[in-house]
Task: inverse folding
């Protein structure tokens, strides 16, 4: 079986994390679409494993959490009429939690917008923090019990609840393709002693834009949406590995992982490729030893 060289793998990953679609990456790198998809899967698994094992003991002070919407195969309202829709077709949400100061993406979970997913997400976040933090989320009701159970009260938690409305009165295409305008926001302390002057979600909401620009499948009004939920999750894992470890933040002038003291120097895409190749080596079957014939049984009477 042909194996991609390191240089081609690095090119493919670089194209993917810079917002190219699977097909565009295939054309630019001069490889098949299946090759790109397979590398995305392998890289996503390796990046998710590395994140789980190494993003721990984060000394954050202020954490902001949010959810970003996308869809798999078809939008939720169109799933019933879609042909050959898989079981996981429909709306898909990515829950994200960021350290406001280092800009590190501490935790992320791909799933639906249910209370069960909120619980899974918050328990994962709590397990990665070293100290008590001030946590800010939006007004989604699923957070209330999830934060209570995951942190057991050891958190200063507040919600930023925004109200939306139509201030322009437009009824044309501007209203169809533009989000509703924020007409106001209310800060609400839930428990602990959050500093209300520090309550905000602007940094995590800016991260939503980074995700939509960095992953083609998140771009609205295109046909680059995810066709499989697994590939969606792999793309998210690869994106956040590159964001945390490789991408120099414009304001901080270091990578988020460096700002959070997880690494001493920035990674390159070649380092991500090395993770993939290491995982392949560990998963490869061991070489058989020399042939040893079985001892013949004595069948004499």
Result:
């Amino acid at each position: 079986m042909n194996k991609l060289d390191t240089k081609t793998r690095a090119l493919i990953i670089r194209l993917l994390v810079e917002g190219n679609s699977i097909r565009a990456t295939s054309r630019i790198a001069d490889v098949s679409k299946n090759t790109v998809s397979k590398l995305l899967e392998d890289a996503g698994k390796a990046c998710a494993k590395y994140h789980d094992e190494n993003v721990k003991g984060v000394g954050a002070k202020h954490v902001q959490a949010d959810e970003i919407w996308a869809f798999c195969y078809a939008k939720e309202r169109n799933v019933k009429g879609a042909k050959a829709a898989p079981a996981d077709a429909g709306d898909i949400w990515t829950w994200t939690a960021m350290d406001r100061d280092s800009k590190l993406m501490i935790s992320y979970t791909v799933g639906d917008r249910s209370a069960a997913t909120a619980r899974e997400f918050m328990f994962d976040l709590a397990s990665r923090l070293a100290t008590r933090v001030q946590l800010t989320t939006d007004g989604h009701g699923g957070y209330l019990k999830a934060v209570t159970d995951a942190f057991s009260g050891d958190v200063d938690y507040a919600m930023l609840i925004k109200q939306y409305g139509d201030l322009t009165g437009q009824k044309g295409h501007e209203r169809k393709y533009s989000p509703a305008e924020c007409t106001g926001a209310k800060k609400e302390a839930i428990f602990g002693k959050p500093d209300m002057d520090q309550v905000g979600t602007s940094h995590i909401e800016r991260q939503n834009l980074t995700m939509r620009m960095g992953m083609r499948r998140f771009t609205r009004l295109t046909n680059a949406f995810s066709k499989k939920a697994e590939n969606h999750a792999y793309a998210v894992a690869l994106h956040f590995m590159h964001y945390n470890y490789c991408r120099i933040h414009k304001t901080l002038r270091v990578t988020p992982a460096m700002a959070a003291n997880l690494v001493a120097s920035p990674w390159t895409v070649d380092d991500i490729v090395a993770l993939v190749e290491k995982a392949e080596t560990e998963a490869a079957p061991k070489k058989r030893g020399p042939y040893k014939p079985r001892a013949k049984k004595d069948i004499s009477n």
